[in-house]
Structures are given as C-alpha cells and as structure tokens.
Amino acid sequence: MAYENVNLPTWRATRHLRGTRILDVGCGTGALGARLTELGNHVEGITHDPGEAEVAAGRLAAVHVLDLDEPSTIAGAVDLPSFDAVILSNVLEHLRDPVQTLHGLDPLLDTGAPAYVALPNVACFWVRASLLAGRFTPRDDGILDRTHLHHYTLRTAQAMLREAELTVDWVDVMPGLSVWLYQLVKPGAAGGGPTSASGNRALELYEDKVFPAERVLTLAWKRMLANEFLFACRRGGLPIPRP
C-alpha cells in the first residue's frame, strides 16, 4: 500500500526551511517533500517501493529506490554529506534494525545536520485501554500497523536514538484525541487521489484550528495523549531551534 501522508509535526518543524537540501528517508509518494519543494528546497527521497517512487518522482528532485534494511547501500547511492537536513517520518519502526539504518546515514549525521524522526507512541491512551480489555490487534495502519517490527514509548524511542549517538533537542507530538479526523481529511484519504477543494478546506481547518489546540493539551501529557512523537535530534553541531 502506497504511503501518501503529510506528517503534521514534521511539516511544522521543517516548513521554515528555504533553499535547503533535504533527504526524506521513507518518503512514500512524496507528499511532505512536495510541500517542502514548493518552499524552494531541494528534496530527495528514499523508498523501497517502486510504485511510491514513480509517484514521488513527479514531486521531488530525485527518488532513490533502496532497501533500508541494507543501510550499507545508502552511501553508495546518495551523496549524503551534501544534505543539510534529514527526515525519517514513520519509517524506523518498519525496519529490522533502526539503529543500524541510522548509522547508514553517518556521513550526513556526522556533519551535525538536524534529523527529524517521527515514531508512533504505543503507550497512547487508546492502546492502553485496548490492553486493559485484553486486545492488541494489528491493523492496516496507525500505531498497531501490522508491518511494524518495533513499538516505541517516549522513553524507549529516546533510548534508541541515544544508541544511534543522537542528541534529542526537543520533542513535538501528534495529538491522539482526534487523529481519526486527520485520517479523514489528509491528502489521499479517499484512496490516494488528489484532494478536492472541500477536502483542502477541511485539511486547512484541521491544521489551523484543531491541531494547535489539541497539541497544547497533548504536550502537557504527551506519554498518554500523543499518537506519535517527533524528535528533533543531531550528532554534534548546534542545537536545533524549535520553530
């Protein structure tokens, strides 16, 4: 199934970038990269899926079809030190060894470039409630996506990033309270096609009104209320400013 999604915390964390070379690892069909490209950035993507790459190629400067479970191949295909930032949005949880894959990006991370890493929160309130009821049922998407090989809490996600020798400067959240609403209005929600005018208005309303209000509440109790976390992290270099 093609991944057509704009991760809102990642978008909000990177939309200030202009004239920047960005590597989107796990780019899906390039929905996020398309927004960043419109802002004047050079965005290249990596995906394992030729179908996703075909769509993303029309949106991004370049798309590389690579197996991220074989991270030694990344440096041979991508000029890693030439990039100014890297995005890994909802991809590491699908991989056999996320730390090894992060080390495959060492030529980029060693420059001190910011890395924006989004991971689902398996300790979100609705998963906790399901466990209390004796249910832990895989789904086609979301926190319990059946293709996830790893499940993270805030603490274990930070530990994984430390193991990869990354320093987390700050954490943002995707609210879990009405994430179902975002699933209805996000691009591609009706099957991957173009978003209608009414869909665009609904998405803008969610991004401008619903998301900011929920985010404030979620940050106050992020271990329980966050559907996912965004980690702004780096190896060396200067602290990443919070936008």
Tally of helical runs: 11
CATH topology: Rossmann fold
Major β-sheet annotation: 7 strands, mixed
Our measurement of the CA-to-CA distance between the termini, rounded to an integer number of angstroms, reads 32 Å
Strand order of the largest sheet: 3-2-1-4-5-7-6
CA-based shape: globular
Estimated share of beta-strand residues: 15-25%
Total number of strands: 7
Low-confidence stretches: 189-196
pLDDT averaged over residues: 92
Structural class: alpha/beta
Radius of gyration: 17 Å
Based on the structure given, which CATH architecture is correct? 3-Layer(aba) Sandwich
Helix and strand sequence? HEHEHEHEHHEHHEHHHE
Roughly what percent helix? 25-40%
Number of individual domains: 1
What order do the helices and strands come in, and which of them pair?
Layout: H1 8-14, E1 21-25, H2 31-38, E2 42-47, H3 50-56, E3 62-65, H4 74-77, E4 85-89, H5 98-103, H6 106-109, E5 115-120, H7 125-132, H8 154-163, E6 167-175, H9 179-185, H10 197-220, H11 222-225, E7 226-234
Parallel strand pairs: 1-2, 1-4, 2-3, 4-5
Antiparallel strand pairs: 5-7, 6-7
